[in-house]
């Protein structure tokens, strides 16, 4: 099939969706992006809405007022299209949102987006024919249409369906309970006794936000010892896991009890693909999406791909790498790996993870232990340029600095020297650093043979 005749469906117009679409367009394919909201940006869009939107659908975004990135902007751009230069490395959510929209406009992706179109079902075409049948509802008119595509790229993110643990007694609690998905402004914590559950990025950041206005914040978690060294304001008390919830207090596994008026769940999100028909052959088992080749290709139907599942990564750079990986096969530049090869690789990687003690919910976790080799494996198999080492090094350094100095790590300023080297200083010294090390555009566009 001629490349211009190939039809691609991209589900979601967040950063992974617009990046995937841009990559497809560059390869000459025809792409349609279905976005259930009325704007680009996915999780970076802010709205005061919580619960359900005007169409009765769960609100997608988890963005809250005042959020700043927890990664330096130097690793949040796309190859050939960097974040705008400024002194600070950690930037506001609205700056990231505008960057994604500018990127989409620059590469002529925006006009390919069908806004307020909800993908209701994706299923393989009948036996004997190739491709996918995609059923879509136009939310404003209610009209339902069915389309056929050769490829489907799922880019709906994974910060939209909250996980709330079923603690004993939670139904009898007399105070307020909410998940961070429904958090927008810190005034809900004013003069309250707040319990924050969960020590991920949201849990640590929002513990600080609550501490500014609350009487007391109890920070409950079961993270490794080194993370228990996080330094919080004086009105934050670290406590162990919750044992049970009482009407006006919470009991913890060490037998202690504390009065609480707000329980704030920062307990993560589920990977959710309600539009996938069972015939797609994809299962989600305790946040392990399987069976996928290199966390991307659906082994049972490899013309379906998932962009953006791995976490603790250089996200936008990984989206772009994954998209290039898929399109290298979809555009027939390389033959598709065999099912046997994909299954063997999948089993090998998962066994490596299980042998290191990881659980199913950590099946897509990267971080310092996995991300570098993961990026390299994508690049090697598809014969494409990997993410430069300097990016993963900055990612790891940023995470280390957050543990060392939670309240001030966002004052760090990073500058790229070359593909293997970065320098860093405090924001008070950034003028000197900017003069000595101008912004370096790392070349990640060229492909090896």
Automatic annotation (TrEMBL):
Positions of transmembrane segments: none
Record GO terms (molecular function): flavin adenine dinucleotide binding; N,N-dimethylaniline monooxygenase activity; NADP binding
Cofactor: FAD
Ubl conjugation is among the record's keywords: no
Keyword Disulfide bond included in the entry's annotation: no
Family: Belongs to the FMO family.
Name of the protein in question: Flavin-containing monooxygenase
Record organism: Anopheles minimus
């Amino acid at each position: 099939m001629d490349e211009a005749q190939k039809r691609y469906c991209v589900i979601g117009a967040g950063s992974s969706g617009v990046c995937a679409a841009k990559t497809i367009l560059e390869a000459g394919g025809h792409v349609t992006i279905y976005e259930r909201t009325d704007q680009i940006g996915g999780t970076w869009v802010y709205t005061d809405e919580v619960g359900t939107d005007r169409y009765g659908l769960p609100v997608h975004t988890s963005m809250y007022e005042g959020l700043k990135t927890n990664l330096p902007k130097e690793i949040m751009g796309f190859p050939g299209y960097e974040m705008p230069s400024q002194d600070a490395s950690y930037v506001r959510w609205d700056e990231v949102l505008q960057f994604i929209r500018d990127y989409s406009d620059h590469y002529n992706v925006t006009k390919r987006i069908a806004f307020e179109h909800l993908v209701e079902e994706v299923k393989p075409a009948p036996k004997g024919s190739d491709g996918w049948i995609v059923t879509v509802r136009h939310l404003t008119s209610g009209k339902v249409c069915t389309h056929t595509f050769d490829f489907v790229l799922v880019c709906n993110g994974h910060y939209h369906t909250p996980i709330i643990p079923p603690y004993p007694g939670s139904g009898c609690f007399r105070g307020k309970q909410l998940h961070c998905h429904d958090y927008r402004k810190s005034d809900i914590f004013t003069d309250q006794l707040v319990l924050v559950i969960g020590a991920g990025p949201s849990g640590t950041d929002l513990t600080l936000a609550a501490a500014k206005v609350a009487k007391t914040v109890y920070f409950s978690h079961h993270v490794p010892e080194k993370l228990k060294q996080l330094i919080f304001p004086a009105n934050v008390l670290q406590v162990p896991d919750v044992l049970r919830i009482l009407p006006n207090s919470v009991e913890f596994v060490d037998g202690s009890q504390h009065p609480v008026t707000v329980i704030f769940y920062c307990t993560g999100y589920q990977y959710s693909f309600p539009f996938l028909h069972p015939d797609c052959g994809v299962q989600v088992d305790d946040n392990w999406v399987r069976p996928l080749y290199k966390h991307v290709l659906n082994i049972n139907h490899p013309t379906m791909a998932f962009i953006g599942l791995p976490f603790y990564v250089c996200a936008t750079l990984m989206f772009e790498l994954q998209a290039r990986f898929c399109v290298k096969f979809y555009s027939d530049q390389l033959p598709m790996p065999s099912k046997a090869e994909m299954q063997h690789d999948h089993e090998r990687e998962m066994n490596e993870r299980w042998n290191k003690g990881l659980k199913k919910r950590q099946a897509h976790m990267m971080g310092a232990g996995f991300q570098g080799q993961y990026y390299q494996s994508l690049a090697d198999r598809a014969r494409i340029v990997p993410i430069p080492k300097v990016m993963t090094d900055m990612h790891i350094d940023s995470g280390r600095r957050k543990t060392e100095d939670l309240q001030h790590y966002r004052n760090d300023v990073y500058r790229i020297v070359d593909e293997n080297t970065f320098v860093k200083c405090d924001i008070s010294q950034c003028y000197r650093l900017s003069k000595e090390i101008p912004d370096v555009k790392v070349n990640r566009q060229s492909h090896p043979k």
